[in-house]
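so my prof wants the structure for this chain in the tokens format not the other one, which i didnt know existed until like an hour ago. anyway here's the sequence
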Amino acid sequence: QVQLVESGGGLVQAGESLRLSCAASGGTGDTYVGAWFRQAPGKEREFVAASRWSGQGTLYSDFVKGRFTISRGNAKNTIDLQMNSLKPEDTAVYYCATGRTLRPQLKNTYEYWGRGTQVTVSS
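here's what i got, hopefully its the right format
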């Protein structure tokens, strides 16, 4: 069973930065895509960013382009999300996912999920 563990969430002020990390026990081969989604209270889980676990082939949602960067982490089988210029509307639980998806923006195409890490941005 593949396990994903997110870390790095917290409480910051608007304009500050956070770096999230996702450590995977598997599901990181060449056919897998690693992704970050987020879910705010009362809202649907939405796509944030995705890439191959090698760090290549990145894709971003429009609302994070230029502010967030997804990349391979320094440790093996990790994928990070650098979040800069955070806004209060970025407040959500951030989830890591991995899967052999051809449509990385669609949450239902991922096979494995982490439990999430809370990011809160105060104004």
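also thought this was worth mentioning. The first strand starts at residue 4 and ends at 7.
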